[in-house]
Amino acid sequence: MPQPSVIPTVKLLIGGKLVESSTSHWRDVVNPATQEVLARVPFATEAEMNAAVASAKEAFKTWRKTPIGARARIFLKYQQLIREHMRELAAILTAEQGKTLPDAEGDVFRGLEVVEHAAGIGNLQLGELANNVAGGVDTYTLQQPLGVCAGITPFNFPAMIPLWMFPMAIATGNTFVLKPSEQDPMVTMRLAELALEAGVPPGVLNVIHGGADAVNLICDHPDIKAVSFVGSTRVGTHVYNRASQAGKRVQCMMGAKNHGIVLPDAHKEQTLNNLVGAAFGAAGQRCMALSVVILVGEAQGWLPELVAKARTLKVNAGVEGGTDVGPVVSRAALERIGALIERGIGEGAELVLDGRQPQVAGYPQGNFIAPTIFSGVTATMDIYREEIFGPVLCVMQAASLDEAIALINANPNGNGTALFTRSGAAARHFQEEIDVGQVGINVPIPVPAPMFSFSGSRASKLGDLGPYGKQAVQFYTQTKTVTQRWFDENEVGGAVNTTITLK
Questions:
Q1: Exposed (0-12), middle (13-18) or buried (19+): which is 357, by Cβ within 10 Å?
Q2: 155-212 per-position pLDDT tens digit
Q3: Which residues are designated catalytic?
Q4: CATH H superfamily, domain 258-441
Protein backbone atom coordinates (compact mmCIF):
# COMPACT_ATOMS: atom_id res chain seq x y z
CA MET A 1 0.00 0.00 0.00
CA PRO A 2 1.52 3.40 -0.91
CA GLN A 3 2.82 5.44 1.99
CA PRO A 4 1.92 9.13 2.40
CA SER A 5 4.67 11.48 1.25
CA VAL A 6 4.74 13.24 4.61
CA ILE A 7 4.03 11.12 7.68
CA PRO A 8 2.41 13.12 10.50
CA THR A 9 4.01 13.27 13.91
CA VAL A 10 2.28 12.68 17.23
CA LYS A 11 2.68 15.69 19.51
CA LEU A 12 3.39 16.03 23.21
CA LEU A 13 0.93 17.93 25.41
CA ILE A 14 2.75 20.23 27.81
CA GLY A 15 1.26 23.23 29.56
CA GLY A 16 -1.89 23.17 27.48
CA LYS A 17 -0.02 23.26 24.15
CA LEU A 18 0.64 20.56 21.55
CA VAL A 19 4.42 20.47 21.27
CA GLU A 20 6.61 19.00 18.52
CA SER A 21 9.27 16.88 20.19
CA SER A 22 12.93 17.62 19.58
CA THR A 23 13.89 13.98 20.13
CA SER A 24 15.95 11.91 17.70
CA HIS A 25 14.17 8.70 18.74
CA TRP A 26 10.90 7.95 16.94
CA ARG A 27 8.65 4.94 16.44
CA ASP A 28 6.18 4.26 13.64
CA VAL A 29 2.49 3.87 14.43
CA VAL A 30 1.44 1.06 12.08
CA ASN A 31 -2.01 -0.02 10.91
CA PRO A 32 -2.06 -3.72 11.89
CA ALA A 33 -4.38 -4.66 8.99
CA THR A 34 -2.33 -3.02 6.22
CA GLN A 35 1.14 -2.18 7.65
CA GLU A 36 0.59 1.43 6.57
CA VAL A 37 2.58 3.88 8.69
CA LEU A 38 -0.04 6.22 10.12
CA ALA A 39 2.22 8.50 12.14
CA ARG A 40 5.51 8.75 13.97
CA VAL A 41 5.49 8.93 17.76
CA PRO A 42 8.40 10.56 19.65
CA PHE A 43 10.22 9.13 22.61
CA ALA A 44 10.28 12.37 24.55
CA THR A 45 13.54 13.79 25.80
CA GLU A 46 14.24 13.96 29.53
CA ALA A 47 13.91 17.74 29.38
CA GLU A 48 10.48 17.46 27.72
CA MET A 49 9.25 14.96 30.29
CA ASN A 50 10.50 17.11 33.14
CA ALA A 51 8.76 20.09 31.57
CA ALA A 52 5.48 18.16 31.57
CA VAL A 53 5.84 17.37 35.27
CA ALA A 54 6.81 20.96 36.06
CA SER A 55 3.77 22.20 34.16
CA ALA A 56 1.52 19.89 36.17
CA LYS A 57 3.14 20.98 39.43
CA GLU A 58 2.60 24.66 38.65
CA ALA A 59 -1.00 24.11 37.53
CA PHE A 60 -1.79 22.24 40.77
CA LYS A 61 -1.36 25.46 42.77
CA THR A 62 -4.56 26.89 41.30
CA TRP A 63 -6.39 23.76 40.15
CA ARG A 64 -6.54 22.33 43.69
CA LYS A 65 -8.44 25.43 44.77
CA THR A 66 -10.92 25.29 41.88
CA PRO A 67 -14.45 24.78 43.26
CA ILE A 68 -15.68 21.23 42.97
CA GLY A 69 -18.70 22.32 40.96
CA ALA A 70 -16.47 23.99 38.37
CA ARG A 71 -14.47 20.78 38.02
CA ALA A 72 -17.66 18.76 37.61
CA ARG A 73 -18.97 21.03 34.87
CA ILE A 74 -15.81 20.50 32.80
CA PHE A 75 -16.49 16.78 32.79
CA LEU A 76 -20.12 17.32 31.89
CA LYS A 77 -18.85 19.17 28.83
CA TYR A 78 -16.19 16.55 28.19
CA GLN A 79 -18.63 13.64 28.09
CA GLN A 80 -20.75 15.62 25.61
CA LEU A 81 -17.74 16.15 23.34
CA ILE A 82 -16.79 12.48 23.48
CA ARG A 83 -20.31 11.50 22.45
CA GLU A 84 -20.23 13.97 19.56
CA HIS A 85 -16.90 12.60 18.33
CA MET A 86 -17.57 8.91 18.99
CA ARG A 87 -17.28 7.77 15.37
CA GLU A 88 -14.14 9.80 14.77
CA LEU A 89 -12.51 8.38 17.90
CA ALA A 90 -13.50 4.83 16.94
CA ALA A 91 -12.10 5.25 13.43
CA ILE A 92 -8.74 6.44 14.78
CA LEU A 93 -8.67 3.60 17.29
CA THR A 94 -9.44 0.93 14.69
CA ALA A 95 -6.81 2.27 12.30
CA GLU A 96 -3.99 2.12 14.84
CA GLN A 97 -5.06 -0.77 17.10
CA GLY A 98 -7.00 -3.07 14.78
CA LYS A 99 -10.18 -3.89 16.67
CA THR A 100 -13.51 -3.73 14.85
CA LEU A 101 -15.33 -0.41 14.63
CA PRO A 102 -18.20 -1.56 16.92
CA ASP A 103 -15.65 -2.81 19.46
CA ALA A 104 -13.72 0.45 19.16
CA GLU A 105 -16.90 2.37 19.94
CA GLY A 106 -17.34 0.09 22.94
CA ASP A 107 -13.78 0.91 24.03
CA VAL A 108 -14.58 4.62 23.94
CA PHE A 109 -17.99 4.15 25.58
CA ARG A 110 -16.65 2.23 28.59
CA GLY A 111 -14.24 5.12 29.17
CA LEU A 112 -17.05 7.62 28.66
CA GLU A 113 -18.92 5.98 31.55
CA VAL A 114 -16.02 6.90 33.86
CA VAL A 115 -16.06 10.49 32.57
CA GLU A 116 -19.77 10.64 33.43
CA HIS A 117 -18.96 9.29 36.89
CA ALA A 118 -16.25 11.94 37.31
CA ALA A 119 -18.86 14.60 36.55
CA GLY A 120 -20.58 13.54 39.79
CA ILE A 121 -17.48 14.24 41.87
CA GLY A 122 -19.46 16.57 44.13
CA ASN A 123 -21.25 13.53 45.55
CA LEU A 124 -18.14 11.36 45.66
CA GLN A 125 -15.48 13.48 47.35
CA LEU A 126 -17.28 13.88 50.65
CA GLY A 127 -15.75 13.87 54.10
CA GLU A 128 -17.27 12.73 57.40
CA LEU A 129 -18.27 14.59 60.55
CA ALA A 130 -18.68 13.44 64.12
CA ASN A 131 -20.26 16.17 66.24
CA ASN A 132 -19.37 16.61 69.91
CA VAL A 133 -16.99 13.65 70.23
CA ALA A 134 -15.94 15.22 73.54
CA GLY A 135 -16.97 18.34 75.38
CA GLY A 136 -17.43 20.91 72.61
CA VAL A 137 -15.15 18.95 70.27
CA ASP A 138 -15.99 18.02 66.66
CA THR A 139 -13.97 15.76 64.37
CA TYR A 140 -14.29 15.81 60.60
CA THR A 141 -12.33 14.64 57.56
CA LEU A 142 -11.19 16.40 54.41
CA GLN A 143 -10.37 14.51 51.20
CA GLN A 144 -7.68 16.64 49.61
CA PRO A 145 -5.83 16.08 46.31
CA LEU A 146 -2.29 14.70 46.33
CA GLY A 147 -0.65 16.85 43.65
CA VAL A 148 0.84 15.60 40.39
CA CYS A 149 -0.33 12.09 39.47
CA ALA A 150 0.68 9.95 36.50
CA GLY A 151 -0.72 7.12 34.40
CA ILE A 152 0.89 4.48 32.19
CA THR A 153 -1.56 2.77 29.83
CA PRO A 154 -1.42 -0.26 27.46
CA PHE A 155 -2.09 -0.72 23.75
CA ASN A 156 -5.21 -2.86 23.98
CA PHE A 157 -7.63 -0.18 25.25
CA PRO A 158 -6.13 3.15 24.15
CA ALA A 159 -9.35 5.06 24.87
CA MET A 160 -10.94 3.31 27.83
CA ILE A 161 -7.95 2.92 30.11
CA PRO A 162 -6.65 6.52 29.86
CA LEU A 163 -10.24 7.55 30.64
CA TRP A 164 -10.16 5.26 33.68
CA MET A 165 -7.31 7.35 35.01
CA PHE A 166 -7.04 11.06 34.30
CA PRO A 167 -10.72 12.10 34.64
CA MET A 168 -10.97 10.79 38.22
CA ALA A 169 -7.54 12.17 39.14
CA ILE A 170 -8.32 15.61 37.73
CA ALA A 171 -11.88 15.72 39.06
CA THR A 172 -10.56 15.15 42.59
CA GLY A 173 -8.27 18.20 42.23
CA ASN A 174 -4.99 16.67 41.05
CA THR A 175 -3.02 17.37 37.91
CA PHE A 176 -1.89 14.58 35.62
CA VAL A 177 0.91 13.32 33.38
CA LEU A 178 -0.19 10.53 31.02
CA LYS A 179 2.06 8.14 29.11
CA PRO A 180 -0.04 6.18 26.62
CA SER A 181 1.21 3.14 24.72
CA GLU A 182 3.69 4.11 22.02
CA GLN A 183 2.02 1.52 19.74
CA ASP A 184 -1.30 3.38 19.40
CA PRO A 185 -1.21 6.88 20.95
CA MET A 186 -3.33 8.73 18.38
CA VAL A 187 -6.80 8.21 19.86
CA THR A 188 -5.43 9.05 23.30
CA MET A 189 -4.11 12.35 21.97
CA ARG A 190 -7.46 13.13 20.37
CA LEU A 191 -9.12 12.54 23.73
CA ALA A 192 -6.60 14.89 25.33
CA GLU A 193 -7.44 17.57 22.75
CA LEU A 194 -11.14 17.19 23.54
CA ALA A 195 -10.35 17.54 27.25
CA LEU A 196 -8.73 20.89 26.56
CA GLU A 197 -11.75 21.90 24.50
CA ALA A 198 -13.98 20.95 27.42
CA GLY A 199 -12.13 23.42 29.64
CA VAL A 200 -9.33 21.49 31.35
CA PRO A 201 -6.87 24.32 32.12
CA PRO A 202 -3.29 24.41 30.77
CA GLY A 203 -0.96 22.11 32.69
CA VAL A 204 -3.72 20.15 34.42
CA LEU A 205 -3.42 17.35 31.82
CA ASN A 206 -0.09 16.63 30.12
CA VAL A 207 0.86 13.79 27.76
CA ILE A 208 4.32 12.40 27.13
CA HIS A 209 5.40 9.50 24.90
CA GLY A 210 8.17 6.97 25.22
CA GLY A 211 9.32 3.60 26.46
CA ALA A 212 11.28 2.41 29.47
CA ASP A 213 12.94 5.80 30.08
CA ALA A 214 9.53 7.49 30.35
CA VAL A 215 8.24 4.78 32.69
CA ASN A 216 11.28 5.11 34.94
CA LEU A 217 11.09 8.90 35.03
CA ILE A 218 7.47 8.65 36.18
CA CYS A 219 8.49 6.15 38.87
CA ASP A 220 11.42 8.25 40.08
CA HIS A 221 10.33 11.89 39.73
CA PRO A 222 10.00 13.45 43.20
CA ASP A 223 7.13 15.73 42.16
CA ILE A 224 4.88 12.83 41.09
CA LYS A 225 2.86 11.61 44.06
CA ALA A 226 0.86 8.69 42.64
CA VAL A 227 1.15 6.31 39.69
CA SER A 228 -1.58 4.23 38.04
CA PHE A 229 -0.57 1.43 35.66
CA VAL A 230 -2.34 -1.08 33.44
CA GLY A 231 -0.30 -3.58 31.45
CA SER A 232 1.83 -6.68 31.67
CA THR A 233 2.84 -8.36 34.91
CA ARG A 234 6.54 -7.90 34.13
CA VAL A 235 6.33 -4.14 33.65
CA GLY A 236 3.69 -3.68 36.36
CA THR A 237 5.85 -5.39 38.95
CA HIS A 238 8.76 -3.15 37.98
CA VAL A 239 6.59 -0.03 38.22
CA TYR A 240 5.14 -1.01 41.58
CA ASN A 241 8.49 -1.81 43.16
CA ARG A 242 10.33 1.21 41.76
CA ALA A 243 7.59 3.79 42.35
CA SER A 244 6.63 2.56 45.81
CA GLN A 245 10.27 2.60 46.88
CA ALA A 246 10.30 6.24 45.77
CA GLY A 247 7.47 6.89 48.25
CA LYS A 248 4.58 7.09 45.78
CA ARG A 249 1.11 5.65 45.90
CA VAL A 250 0.93 2.96 43.23
CA GLN A 251 -1.82 0.83 41.70
CA CYS A 252 -0.94 -1.74 39.04
CA MET A 253 -3.51 -3.79 37.11
CA MET A 254 -1.54 -6.57 35.47
CA GLY A 255 -1.74 -9.95 33.75
CA ALA A 256 -4.53 -12.46 33.89
CA LYS A 257 -5.68 -15.95 33.05
CA ASN A 258 -9.45 -15.76 33.24
CA HIS A 259 -11.52 -18.93 33.51
CA GLY A 260 -15.11 -19.75 32.72
CA ILE A 261 -16.78 -22.78 34.26
CA VAL A 262 -19.63 -24.41 32.34
CA LEU A 263 -22.05 -26.61 34.25
CA PRO A 264 -24.26 -29.07 32.33
CA ASP A 265 -27.44 -27.22 33.34
CA ALA A 266 -26.34 -23.97 31.65
CA HIS A 267 -28.36 -22.64 28.72
CA LYS A 268 -26.29 -24.14 25.90
CA GLU A 269 -26.81 -21.64 23.08
CA GLN A 270 -26.40 -18.56 25.27
CA THR A 271 -23.36 -20.03 26.98
CA LEU A 272 -21.62 -20.98 23.74
CA ASN A 273 -22.24 -17.49 22.34
CA ASN A 274 -20.83 -15.94 25.53
CA LEU A 275 -17.75 -18.16 25.53
CA VAL A 276 -16.89 -17.48 21.89
CA GLY A 277 -17.49 -13.73 22.17
CA ALA A 278 -15.43 -13.37 25.34
CA ALA A 279 -12.56 -15.55 24.10
CA PHE A 280 -12.15 -14.12 20.60
CA GLY A 281 -13.51 -10.56 20.77
CA ALA A 282 -10.80 -7.90 20.31
CA ALA A 283 -8.68 -10.79 18.92
CA GLY A 284 -8.26 -11.96 22.51
CA GLN A 285 -6.30 -8.82 23.42
CA ARG A 286 -8.17 -8.09 26.64
CA CYS A 287 -6.88 -8.50 30.15
CA MET A 288 -10.41 -9.72 30.90
CA ALA A 289 -10.61 -12.11 27.91
CA LEU A 290 -12.05 -15.51 28.80
CA SER A 291 -9.02 -17.55 27.77
CA VAL A 292 -9.77 -20.80 29.63
CA VAL A 293 -13.01 -22.79 29.66
CA ILE A 294 -13.56 -25.63 32.12
CA LEU A 295 -16.30 -27.98 30.96
CA VAL A 296 -17.80 -29.84 33.91
CA GLY A 297 -19.31 -33.31 33.69
CA GLU A 298 -21.69 -33.79 30.79
CA ALA A 299 -20.84 -30.31 29.46
CA GLN A 300 -17.61 -31.86 28.18
CA GLY A 301 -19.71 -33.08 25.26
CA TRP A 302 -20.24 -29.48 24.15
CA LEU A 303 -16.74 -29.16 22.69
CA PRO A 304 -17.70 -29.90 19.05
CA GLU A 305 -20.43 -27.27 19.18
CA LEU A 306 -18.02 -24.76 20.74
CA VAL A 307 -15.55 -25.37 17.89
CA ALA A 308 -18.34 -25.07 15.30
CA LYS A 309 -19.48 -21.77 16.79
CA ALA A 310 -15.93 -20.38 16.71
CA ARG A 311 -15.56 -21.38 13.04
CA THR A 312 -18.42 -19.03 12.12
CA LEU A 313 -16.56 -15.90 13.23
CA LYS A 314 -15.42 -13.65 10.39
CA VAL A 315 -11.78 -12.57 10.38
CA ASN A 316 -11.12 -9.31 8.55
CA ALA A 317 -9.88 -5.76 8.95
CA GLY A 318 -11.70 -3.86 11.68
CA VAL A 319 -13.11 -1.34 9.20
CA GLU A 320 -14.94 -4.02 7.21
CA GLY A 321 -18.59 -4.59 8.05
CA GLY A 322 -19.50 -7.84 9.75
CA THR A 323 -15.99 -8.46 11.08
CA ASP A 324 -15.83 -10.41 14.33
CA VAL A 325 -12.06 -10.76 14.77
CA GLY A 326 -9.62 -8.10 13.59
CA PRO A 327 -5.82 -8.30 13.46
CA VAL A 328 -3.57 -8.42 16.49
CA VAL A 329 -1.69 -5.22 17.15
CA SER A 330 1.76 -6.01 15.70
CA ARG A 331 3.97 -8.48 13.89
CA ALA A 332 5.74 -9.18 17.16
CA ALA A 333 2.42 -10.07 18.83
CA LEU A 334 1.51 -12.35 15.92
CA GLU A 335 4.85 -14.15 16.13
CA ARG A 336 4.58 -14.57 19.89
CA ILE A 337 1.08 -16.05 19.65
CA GLY A 338 2.22 -18.42 16.89
CA ALA A 339 5.16 -19.57 19.00
CA LEU A 340 2.86 -20.31 21.95
CA ILE A 341 0.53 -22.32 19.72
CA GLU A 342 3.52 -24.38 18.55
CA ARG A 343 4.53 -24.88 22.16
CA GLY A 344 1.03 -26.08 23.05
CA ILE A 345 1.16 -28.67 20.31
CA GLY A 346 4.55 -29.80 21.55
CA GLU A 347 3.23 -30.08 25.10
CA GLY A 348 0.55 -32.52 23.98
CA ALA A 349 -2.57 -30.35 23.88
CA GLU A 350 -4.94 -31.18 21.02
CA LEU A 351 -5.33 -28.36 18.49
CA VAL A 352 -9.01 -28.82 17.62
CA LEU A 353 -9.25 -25.52 15.74
CA ASP A 354 -6.17 -24.08 14.04
CA GLY A 355 -6.53 -20.38 13.20
CA ARG A 356 -3.01 -19.74 11.97
CA GLN A 357 -2.40 -17.97 8.65
CA PRO A 358 -5.98 -17.26 7.61
CA GLN A 359 -6.45 -15.85 4.13
CA VAL A 360 -8.05 -12.41 4.34
CA ALA A 361 -8.97 -11.00 0.96
CA GLY A 362 -7.63 -7.51 0.37
CA TYR A 363 -5.36 -7.54 3.42
CA PRO A 364 -2.43 -9.86 2.65
CA GLN A 365 -0.12 -8.01 5.05
CA GLY A 366 -2.44 -8.03 8.05
CA ASN A 367 -1.50 -9.45 11.45
CA PHE A 368 -4.34 -11.96 11.35
CA ILE A 369 -4.95 -15.08 13.34
CA ALA A 370 -8.35 -16.75 13.40
CA PRO A 371 -10.01 -18.31 16.47
CA THR A 372 -7.85 -21.15 17.78
CA ILE A 373 -8.92 -23.79 20.30
CA PHE A 374 -6.90 -26.32 22.29
CA SER A 375 -8.53 -29.18 24.20
CA GLY A 376 -6.96 -31.54 26.71
CA VAL A 377 -5.09 -28.64 28.31
CA THR A 378 -3.52 -29.23 31.73
CA ALA A 379 -2.34 -26.82 34.40
CA THR A 380 1.34 -27.65 33.75
CA MET A 381 1.32 -26.50 30.12
CA ASP A 382 2.80 -23.15 29.10
CA ILE A 383 -0.30 -22.29 27.06
CA TYR A 384 -2.22 -22.46 30.35
CA ARG A 385 0.33 -20.75 32.57
CA GLU A 386 1.15 -17.85 30.22
CA GLU A 387 -1.19 -15.09 29.14
CA ILE A 388 -1.36 -15.64 25.36
CA PHE A 389 -3.14 -12.33 24.65
CA GLY A 390 -4.51 -13.54 21.35
CA PRO A 391 -7.57 -15.39 19.99
CA VAL A 392 -6.58 -18.71 21.58
CA LEU A 393 -8.92 -20.62 23.91
CA CYS A 394 -7.76 -23.40 26.22
CA VAL A 395 -10.41 -26.01 27.07
CA MET A 396 -10.06 -28.10 30.24
CA GLN A 397 -12.28 -30.70 31.88
CA ALA A 398 -13.44 -31.23 35.45
CA ALA A 399 -15.66 -33.84 37.08
CA SER A 400 -17.32 -31.37 39.47
CA LEU A 401 -17.77 -27.71 40.28
CA ASP A 402 -15.48 -28.01 43.30
CA GLU A 403 -12.73 -29.53 41.17
CA ALA A 404 -13.04 -26.60 38.74
CA ILE A 405 -12.97 -24.08 41.60
CA ALA A 406 -9.83 -25.71 43.02
CA LEU A 407 -8.13 -25.46 39.63
CA ILE A 408 -8.92 -21.74 39.34
CA ASN A 409 -7.87 -20.98 42.90
CA ALA A 410 -4.51 -22.70 42.27
CA ASN A 411 -3.78 -20.28 39.40
CA PRO A 412 -1.75 -17.29 40.64
CA ASN A 413 -3.87 -14.72 38.78
CA GLY A 414 -7.16 -13.33 39.99
CA ASN A 415 -8.49 -10.82 37.49
CA GLY A 416 -11.85 -12.30 36.49
CA THR A 417 -13.84 -15.52 36.33
CA ALA A 418 -17.32 -16.64 35.32
CA LEU A 419 -19.77 -19.46 35.97
CA PHE A 420 -22.47 -20.53 33.55
CA THR A 421 -25.38 -22.27 35.23
CA ARG A 422 -29.11 -22.13 35.94
CA SER A 423 -28.58 -23.17 39.57
CA GLY A 424 -28.77 -20.45 42.19
CA ALA A 425 -27.21 -22.80 44.75
CA ALA A 426 -24.22 -23.47 42.48
CA ALA A 427 -23.83 -19.75 41.75
CA ARG A 428 -23.85 -18.87 45.45
CA HIS A 429 -21.32 -21.60 46.24
CA PHE A 430 -19.10 -20.41 43.41
CA GLN A 431 -19.08 -16.75 44.40
CA GLU A 432 -18.29 -17.62 48.00
CA GLU A 433 -15.50 -20.13 47.33
CA ILE A 434 -13.73 -18.63 44.31
CA ASP A 435 -10.59 -16.58 45.10
CA VAL A 436 -10.85 -14.09 42.24
CA GLY A 437 -11.56 -10.38 42.43
CA GLN A 438 -14.23 -10.07 39.73
CA VAL A 439 -16.90 -12.73 39.39
CA GLY A 440 -19.48 -13.17 36.66
CA ILE A 441 -22.59 -15.32 36.92
CA ASN A 442 -23.66 -15.97 33.32
CA VAL A 443 -21.63 -12.83 32.50
CA PRO A 444 -18.38 -13.70 30.70
CA ILE A 445 -16.47 -10.43 31.19
CA PRO A 446 -17.48 -9.11 34.63
CA VAL A 447 -15.88 -5.65 34.49
CA PRO A 448 -17.94 -3.54 36.91
CA ALA A 449 -19.66 -0.28 36.03
CA PRO A 450 -17.93 2.92 37.22
CA MET A 451 -20.00 3.35 40.39
CA PHE A 452 -18.10 0.28 41.59
CA SER A 453 -14.36 -0.28 41.13
CA PHE A 454 -12.20 -2.62 39.08
CA SER A 455 -11.27 -5.26 41.64
CA GLY A 456 -8.79 -7.73 40.20
CA SER A 457 -6.83 -9.58 42.85
CA ARG A 458 -3.81 -11.72 43.70
CA ALA A 459 -1.04 -11.69 41.03
CA SER A 460 -3.25 -9.64 38.70
CA LYS A 461 -3.00 -6.58 40.93
CA LEU A 462 -0.48 -4.73 43.06
CA GLY A 463 -1.81 -2.03 45.35
CA ASP A 464 -5.01 -1.95 47.36
CA LEU A 465 -7.28 0.35 45.36
CA GLY A 466 -8.84 0.12 41.90
CA PRO A 467 -8.40 2.65 39.07
CA TYR A 468 -11.95 4.03 38.95
CA GLY A 469 -15.13 4.22 41.03
CA LYS A 470 -15.19 4.87 44.76
CA GLN A 471 -11.72 3.38 45.25
CA ALA A 472 -10.24 5.89 42.80
CA VAL A 473 -11.42 8.78 44.98
CA GLN A 474 -9.55 7.21 47.89
CA PHE A 475 -6.46 6.60 45.75
CA TYR A 476 -6.26 10.15 44.42
CA THR A 477 -6.95 11.95 47.71
CA GLN A 478 -5.34 12.26 51.11
CA THR A 479 -7.66 12.01 54.08
CA LYS A 480 -6.96 14.76 56.58
CA THR A 481 -8.66 14.49 59.98
CA VAL A 482 -9.45 17.72 61.81
CA THR A 483 -10.34 17.76 65.49
CA GLN A 484 -11.48 21.18 66.70
CA ARG A 485 -12.85 22.92 69.75
CA TRP A 486 -14.16 26.47 69.93
CA PHE A 487 -14.40 28.01 73.37
CA ASP A 488 -17.13 30.38 74.41
CA GLU A 489 -15.58 33.81 74.85
CA ASN A 490 -17.03 34.03 78.36
CA GLU A 491 -15.77 30.59 79.38
CA VAL A 492 -13.27 30.58 82.23
CA GLY A 493 -10.21 28.44 81.59
CA GLY A 494 -10.10 25.15 83.47
CA ALA A 495 -7.23 23.17 84.93
CA VAL A 496 -4.31 21.79 82.97
CA ASN A 497 -5.09 18.38 81.50
CA THR A 498 -2.02 16.11 81.15
CA THR A 499 -3.93 12.99 80.02
CA ILE A 500 -4.50 11.86 76.44
CA THR A 501 -8.29 12.14 76.72
CA LEU A 502 -10.40 15.07 75.62
CA LYS A 503 -12.79 16.39 78.25
A1: exposed
A2: 999 999 999 999 999 999 999 999 999 999 999 999 999 999 999 999 999 999 999 9
A3: 287
A4: Aldehyde Dehydrogenase; Chain A, domain 2 (3.40.309.10)
